[in-house]
Amino acid sequence: MKTDRIKWNQRYDAEGMYLGQRPSPFLSREIKRILRLAPGKRALDIACGEGRNSIFLAQQGFLVTALDISEVGLDKAATWAGQEGLQIDFQQADLEGYRITERFDLIVNFNFLLRDLIPEELRALSPGGLLIIDTIMESPHLSAAHNPAYLLQAGELRRICEELEGEILFYEELPGDETPTARVLFRKSA
Ligand SMILES: C[S@@+](CC[C@H](N)C(=O)[O-])C[C@H]1O[C@@H](n2cnc3c(N)ncnc32)[C@H](O)[C@@H]1O
């Protein structure tokens, strides 16, 4: 959506990295299991922002494609990847109504929620492929103002995943955290 693009371009048009340079903690925590279970090396980073998770995955040997609506974020991500000597396929895309045309062994979706995209992500996974979703949930502890449409409800991510063909390998909700979060590691049926 055009308004999202403008909003995120403004956020990223500043010194430093809006969400920092470290990968998402859930991704670093699970990386050994991901490397062991992913059926191949093709990874897709959904709404990659300034690229912290794309870069981490490329450093772990994945061939990464990364999508985002913000060209400012993508430019920063590409510059950073270049400095690290990493080749990552960064592409500008509006993910609303988006169809993923290639196959991936791993899809990561951090801090971004488009409910209709989740079945599409599963469809784009190769058999036995892994899907990670980790995003903000509704909670009385949520401090900053958020569009309620982009917040997961308690139990919602689990219900969504139970409808998908595959297995939940890990699930947790942290409604009391500073940033209340729900997260899942899911494996598509082989
Ligand atoms: C909170 S940031 C998360 C960035 C990244 N996943 C991370 O955790 O570092 C949300 C991202 O979603 C992107 N975004 C928002 N709406 C979008 C849309 N319709 N299509 C593609 N990307 C979108 C923004 O540009 C922004 O980079």
β-strand number: 7
Total domain count: 1
Please state the second-level CATH architecture. Answer: 3-Layer(aba) Sandwich
Largest sheet: 7 strands, mixed
CATH class: Alpha Beta
Question: What structural class is derived from the secondary structure elements?
Answer: alpha/beta
Kindly report the name of the CATH homologous superfamily. Vaccinia Virus protein VP39
The averaged pLDDT comes out at 96
CATH topology: Rossmann fold
Principal-axis shape: globular
Give the spatial strand order of the biggest sheet: 3-2-1-4-5-7-6
Bound molecules: S-adenosylmethionine
* Helix content bin: 25-40%
Written overview of the protein:
A seven-stranded mixed sheet has the order 3-2-1-4-5-7-6, with helices on both faces. The chain has 190 residues and is of the alpha/beta class. Strand 1, helix 3 and strand 2 form a beta-alpha-beta unit. The protein has a single domain, classed as Vaccinia Virus protein VP39 (Rossmann fold, 3-Layer(aba) Sandwich), CATH 3.40.50.150. It contains six helices and seven strands, in the order H-H-E-H-E-H-E-E-H-E-H-E-E. Bound molecules: S-adenosylmethionine (SAM). S-adenosylmethionine binds next to helix 1 and helix 3.
Features of the shown structure:
6 helices, alpha/beta, globular, 190 residues, 7 strands, seven-stranded mixed sheet, binds S-adenosylmethionine, Rossmann fold, 32% helix
